[in-house]
């Protein structure tokens, strides 16, 4: 069953309607507080779903089913770490953001250590986010390319050309409402689309079960015989070197996932920006804590989809199914098996969520560029209306850069989700280590923080390229390196002002 013209029309109408809705929600922007923080009046439950949709929507939709299709369920151990990490961020790090009028994650570092540290952290975030979100944008292009190619439209284009066209189409729609709607429109659209794409995923699961000869009973024997129901991997039979190389042993996944989340949800502007849109500390903590419960449910759902697809396709490899990569398995099912009309709705939900994710990236990048770099260094004399206009221009520039970056990942090997997470791990450790120094080590000053930060970055480049280490441990190693380097620096260079800068 090919993707029909009706399905394509549904997708196009739905995506345009989503962009129009986002534009309408955020139409009354007066200053950067409205544009980047939603006036600090967004309800916590909307922020909860926005956090989950932003961090996992497209990657979860296409790549997590591929993880369980090719492997097993041990990926879920990482999610347990994600839940623990969110609770720690809510209890330890979010309160620090409410001591003073903090506008970004790196504003805290500026208050604690000084502008140089704030600028360094902001620039590092922007570089990392462009690379990681370039992968995410490419991920959104995978199912769209599969759909367009499978529909018979635009015959004669190569697979790479399909990807490029998909990236351009998604980016153009996204930038329309992000540039003018701001973070408020991004969050509310996220919430709506999360509800829709989860409904679409559940519907796809029901269709697979209905198509299996004996329903769920048909699932048990193939996945058990293939070892795909294994979710707990202690790694006790491995040597130390092998243990440190395996990403999904329980200790590595739990600790690595928790520390990674401390960094991604406590120091990454993509998430912190959303948390700061809530009206109070308690609302922000609730939003982040409940996102852990939602994300656990979501990963269980999509890992289960991978097992259902494995059974449905009889365990065939992606190549046997005519696919270049495992990430195309679920899009292939949507296009070829789900009935006409319903297929269009499921894909429309996928792309609307994808657009919301990209919109969040653009908003966080522009907020950090304007608030962490431009305003402190060049824009102190600008009026609110001037800063709002500059913010919109910066958002447009980031969209062009992200489109260019996404095209670089067309030749990417492996599943997209693991690539995106490993890219972020390069810098998360240094950022988290500096935050921990700022929170708990009063002796550290700006010089110590900068030494700690760049020592961690350099050490991670060496470690990742020359030492075989599981990617969930990158952030653990980087943060420990930064903390140790900061403490040593404060002992070697004891002169100078050591009192922490107040956050009040």
Walk me through the structure.
The protein is mainly α and 504 residues long. The chain has a single domain, classed as Sodium/glucose cotransporter, CATH 1.20.1730.10. It has 19 helices and no strands. The chain has helices at residues 5-25, 32-37, 44-62, 64-70, 76-97, 105-112, 115-151, 159-211, 217-225, 240-245, 250-266, 269-275, 281-312, 329-336, 342-377, 384-407, 416-440, 446-466, 472-492. Helix 7 packs parallel to helix 14 (329-336). The longest helix is centred in the middle third of the chain and has 53 residues, at 159-211. The N and C termini lie far apart (62 Å). Residues 498-504 have low confidence and may be disordered.
Task: Name a few traits of the molecule.
mainly alpha; 504 residues
| Shape estimate | globular
Averaging pLDDT over every residue, what do you get? 81
Tally of alpha and pi helices: 19
Provide the succession of SSEs: HHHHHHHHHHHHHHHHHHH
Briefly note the CATH topology name: Sodium/glucose cotransporter
Number of domains: 1
Seen as an oligomer or otherwise, the chain set is: single chain
| Category by helix and strand content | mainly alpha
Q: Fraction of residues in helices?
A: over 70%
Largest sheet geometry? none
Radius of gyration: 23 Å
Number of strands: 0
The percentage of residues in β strands lies in under 5%
| Cα distance spanning the termini | 62 Å
Uncertain parts: 498-504
Architecture, according to CATH? Up-down Bundle
């Amino acid at each position: 069953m090919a993707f029909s013209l009706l399905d394509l029309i549904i997708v196009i109408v739905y995506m345009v309607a989503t962009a129009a809705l986002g534009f309408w929600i955020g139409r009354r922007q007066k200053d950067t507080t409205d544009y980047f923080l939603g006036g600090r009046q967004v309800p916590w439950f909307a922020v909860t779903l926005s956090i989950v949709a932003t961090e996992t929507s497209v990657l979860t939709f296409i790549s997590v089913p591929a993880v369980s299709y090719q492997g097993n369920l041990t990926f879920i151990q990482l999610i347990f770490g994600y839940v623990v990490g969110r609770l720690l961020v809510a209890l330890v790090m979010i309160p620090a953001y409410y001591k003073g009028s903090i506008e970004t994650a790196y504003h805290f570092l500026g208050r604690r250590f000084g502008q140089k540290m704030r600028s360094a952290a902001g620039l590092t975030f922007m570089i990392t986010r462009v690379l990681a979100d370039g992968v995410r944008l490419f991920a959104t292009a995978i199912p769209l390319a599969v759909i367009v190619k499978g529909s018979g439209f635009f015959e004669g284009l190569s697979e790479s050309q399909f990807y490029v066209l998909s990236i351009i189409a998604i980016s153009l729609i996204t930038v329309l409402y992000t540039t003018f709607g701001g973070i408020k429109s991004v969050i509310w659209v996220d919430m709506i689309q999360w509800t829709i794409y989860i409904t679409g995923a559940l519907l796809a699961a029901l269709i697979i079960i209905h198509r299996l000869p004996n329903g769920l009973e048909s699932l048990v024997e193939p996945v058990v015989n293939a070892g795909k129901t294994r979710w707990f991997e202690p790694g006790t039979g491995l040597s130390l070197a092998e243990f440190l190389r395996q990403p999904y042993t329980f200790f590595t996944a739990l600790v690595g996932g928790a520390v990674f989340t401390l960094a991604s949800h406590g120091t990454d502007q993509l998430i912190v920006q959303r948390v700061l849109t809530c009206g109070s500390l308690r609302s922000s903590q609730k939003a982040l804590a409940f996102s852990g419960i939602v994300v656990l449910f979501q990963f269980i759902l999509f890992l289960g989809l991978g097992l259902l697809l494995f059974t449905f396709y009889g365990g065939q490899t992606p190549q046997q199914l005519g696919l270049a990569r495992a990430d195309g398995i679920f899009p292939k099912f949507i296009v070829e098996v789900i009935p006409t009309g319903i297929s269009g709705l499921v894909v429309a939900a996928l792309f609307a969520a994808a657009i919301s994710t990209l919109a969040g990236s653009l908003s966080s990048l522009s907020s950090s560029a304007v608030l962490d770099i431009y305003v402190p260094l060049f824009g102190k004399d600008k009026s609110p209306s001037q800063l709002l206009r500059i913010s919109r221009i910066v958002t447009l520039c980031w969209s062009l850069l992200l489109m260019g970056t996404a095209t670089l990942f067309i030749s990417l090997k492996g599943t997209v989700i693991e690539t995106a997470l490993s890219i972020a791990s390069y810098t998360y450790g240094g950022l988290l280590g500096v935050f921990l120094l700022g929170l708990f080590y009063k002796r550290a000053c700006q010089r110590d923080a900068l030494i700690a930060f760049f020592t961690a970055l350099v050490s991670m480049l060496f470690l990742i390229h020359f030492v075989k280490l599981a990617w969930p441990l990158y952030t653990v190693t980087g943060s420990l390196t930064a903390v140790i380097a900061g403490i040593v620096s404060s002992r070697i260079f004891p002169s100078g002002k050591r009192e922490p800068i107040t956050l009040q």
